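Q: What would this chain look like folded?
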Amino acid sequence: MNQTLPPTLVEILRHIAREEPLTGTVRAFPGMTREDMGRLLEAAAEHLTARPPAESPPPPPPPGVRRPRRPPR
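A: My prediction, written as structure tokens:
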């Protein structure tokens, strides 16, 4: 069975930073350009790669699988 791994959050953020037009996002934040948004997403991805593994969030569940809800605190 050839099973592919789901993309990481970092890979998704970097793809969005490079490929998505972000038109609605730019419109929602006056004064920000598409390039500004791309740099912010790249910085977020870089921040995630710099975190120690123990602090990394769990990977997203496979499509169609829901995570159980956490009990209220």
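Residues 67 and 73 are 17 Å apart (CA to CA).
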